[in-house]
Design a protein that fits this description.
heterodimer; A: alpha/beta; Beta Polymerase, domain 2; 3 domains; six-stranded parallel beta sheet; B: 9 helices
């Protein structure tokens, strides 16, 4: 019996194939229940996000279960096998476990280190648990995946630095102001990236939002969205004196803010620091402004540099993370191996034998006067009782039944056979 | 016994300093925890050494250069603990422990004998005056370390070199806040130290003020920190300039402490 992963992700499949194979809404429940019912499949869970569709299963035989699942996918989504088969990956055993741990730790993600995937994984396992499609192996594996992901996050710096321009802007702002709550913010112009950055700032608690747009009406719309107020574009320089963070992204073809103007504004605001992000191309703010004390001006290239370094940094950290994954895979494989029934049967017999011997010794010391014949009779009696007691468990453990792992697990726990408490 | 304790404390500070400097380049949460634990151990041993010396000398051990440097270092560590408790900035140790270690090292190289106390010093003012002065100056020493941190961080932000140390240093606002806080602690202490010194001088020498070099340089120190506070409160003079001035201020403190004793003739000379 083996752990099996079948799936496809953003690296192996194009968006239209991912779309066709996605399990959205009610399809998720239908899908997972049907997979669980497939022959050879003992446990199953199903992950479907915009970047990946993956089926996790505990199966009797990896090859035939894999075939069954592929057939199911084709039938369920009404798509030719040939259309998606090349995009699929199939892992079993330790490779499958490694894959799940890597996914959970966000080493397989489009942006390495982004934490959303762990939450999604938790959700789908909770869902599978509520539908009773998983059992002792996958449940345990999920716990392992969560603990491994946590280990990776605490022991490496994989998720520490921002890898998008808008997050980089927020992070830099925090290196200047600590807390963004209570800081005032102005958006100059509009544009997708600027709005995204503005949204991040607002969700980080920035208060007193102002929007200055060349078209006043558009400014009002945006201001409403951020719960702020619109400012006439001509007045923005006046507002600079009362603003801590500025994001600028107008379509102007020349500078709209010069050093002297900024110097005046700084004097008026008593040199409290200002963070200005100019993401317009061509630049809208005179770069000389960065030379004024307590003014920190970043343009789009500066932010991109930050992002690039952080991505590199994450790649380095990912190597560290792989080592952690290796360790955890090994631990989990050991645990699975411990479910093998043969050594458990041996251990169970040994345990019975030990108890018998111990009790017989006690008896013999207590009644040394008994003759040899009677002693033998007592020993025979003890042997008969212990053998009868372990006979049925032994037979059942030897049977190749579907829930043998569960029973092995139970026997180990019930009889206190060692090796159970791996964690 | 006193020597062993002193040397042990010195060794702890040395180890903590080395680890904390390595931390600037390559460090983790574990290493900064280790630095802190070693410093705590060093501080405990150091305190024991000072108490031991107090008992064997029978007066506040602060009259020789050896004792004064050691006590100065002790005060700096005390303030460092206070900040670490309050702000939990692991990397701060890297900028403060070297000062502590240098103080202890110079202390270790100076003569350590215990001499009888001159009549002018036999007064309860000795403890009060020196404790105030040393705690105040220790606050300035830490403000110096924090000022350096501020200037580095501000340099990184301006030049956009956002490497490892940038990530470890806290925000400019926090550094500025700590700097301000330290000066608001140090300044009143220094003021009280000068006032208590004036009163003591009156009772010991019969004159409030004698333009002794130490007195003059303490006054200069006092003016520098008064300027920082004044400009912050009135002209919105903060951040970078305050950081630069707190660095300069501490250099003056160091001169008042070492320079006056070594280069100029003063009634305040440690023996």
């Amino acid at each position: 019996m083996k752990v099996l992963v079948i799936g496809l992700n953003h690296k192996t499949a194009s968006i239209d194939i991912r779309e066709k194979l996605a399990f959205n809404g009610p399809k998720l429940e239908e899908g997972i229940l049907s997979i669980r019912e497939l022959p050879e499949v003992n446990e199953a869970a199903l992950l479907s996000t915009c970047n990946r569709v993956e089926i996790y299963a505990y199966v009797n035989d990896a090859a035939s279960a894999g075939e069954n699942i592929k057939g199911f996918l084709s039938g369920f989504h009404n798509i030719n096998r040939a259309d998606f088969e090349n995009s699929l990956y199939l892992y079993s055993d330790s490779d499958a476990i490694r894959h799940i741990l890597r996914v959970a730790s966000s080493l397989d993600s489009m942006v390495v280190g982004e934490p959303q995937i762990l939450g999604q994984l938790k959700d789908i396992f909770d869902f599978a648990l509520s539908k009773k499609t998983t059992g002792i192996i996958l449940n345990r594996l999920m716990k392992k995946a969560i603990s491994t992901a946590k280990r990776v996050r605490t022991e490496t710096r994989i998720a520490e630095n921002a890898v998008s321009i808008s997050f980089a802007a927020v992070e830099l702002a925090k290196k200047i102001f600590t807390e963004l709550s209570g800081k005032s913010f102005m958006l100059l112009g509009a544009g997708e990236m600027a709005e995204l950055a503005a949204r991040h700032l607002v969700s980080n608690g920035v208060k007193d939002v102002k929007v200055a747009n060349r078209t006043y009406e558009r400014g009002c719309e945006l201001a409403k969205e951020f719960d702020g107020k619109a400012v006439r574009f001509e007045d923005f320089i006046k507002e600079m004196a009362h603003t801590d963070i500025v994001i600028c992204s107008t379509g102007a073809s020349a500078y709209i803010l010069f050093r002297e103007q900024m110097q005046k504004a700084m004097k008026e605001r008593r040199h409290k620091p200002v963070f200005i992000i100019d993401i317009s191309v061509p630049r809208n703010i005179d770069p000389e402004i960065n030379k004024i004390d307590n003014v920190y001006l970043y343009n789009v290239d500066d932010l991109q540099d930050v992002v690039d370094t952080n991505i590199l940094e994450r790649k380095k950290e990912a190597e560290e993370a792989e080592k952690i994954i290796d360790e955890e895979v090994e631990k989990f494989m050991n645990w699975i191996a411990s479910l093998n029934s043969v050594p458990v049967i041996i251990a169970l017999r040994q345990k019975a034998e030990d108890i018998k011997k111990e009790e017989f010794e006690k008896f013999r010391n207590k009644f040394p006067e008994l003759d040899k014949e009677k002693m033998e009779a007592v020993e025979y009696l003890l042997t008969a009782v212990t053998n009868k007691l372990i006979h049925n468990p032994t037979v059942i453990l030897k049977e190749n039944s579907e829930d043998r792992d569960l029973l092995t697990f139970a026997v180990k726990k019930l009889y206190g056979i060692n090796g159970e408490d791996e964690e | 016994m006193g020597t062993i304790l002193f040397e042990l404390a010195l060794t702890c500070y040395f180890a903590a300093t080395i680890i904390s400097i390595v931390e600037i380049f390559k460090g983790s949460k574990e290493s900064s925890r280790l630095t802190f634990s070693i410093t705590v151990a060093g501080f405990a041993i150091h305190s024991a050494a000072i108490i031991y010396r107090y008992i064997s000398a029978g007066y506040m051990p602060i009259t020789s250069m050896h004792e004064a440097s050691s006590f100065f270092a002790w005060c700096i560590v005390l303030i460092y603990f206070f900040l670490e408790y309050k702000y939990k900035i692991g990397i701060m140790g890297s900028f403060i422990l070297p000062i502590v270690f240098m103080m202890m090292l110079s202390s270790s190289m100076l003569p350590r004998g215990i001499k009888p106390l001159g009549p002018a010093l036999q007064s309860y003012w000795l403890g009060i005056h020196t404790a105030l002065a040393f705690l105040g100056n220790a606050a300035f020493a830490v403000a110096f370390g924090v000022g350096i941190m501020y200037l580095l961080q501000e340099h990184y932000l301006k030049s956009k070199h956002l490497g490892g140390l940038f990530q470890k240093l806290p925000s400019l606002q926090v550094l500025d806040e700590i700097n301000y806080r330290l000066i608001t602690i140090g300044f009143p202490l220094l003021t009280l130290a000068i006032i208590s010194g004036v009163l003591w001088a009156e009772s010991a020498w019969g004159r409030f003020w004698r333009w002794d070099p130490k007195e003059v340089w303490s006054l200069i120190t006092w003016f520098i920190y008064a300027l920082i506070l004044h400009m912050r409160l009135t002209a919105g003079w903060r951040k970078k300039r305050a950081a630069i001035l707190s660095v300069i201020g501490f250099i003056v403190v160091l001169f008042t402490f070492f320079g006056v004793n070594l280069l100029l003739k003063s009634l305040h000379s440690f023996r």
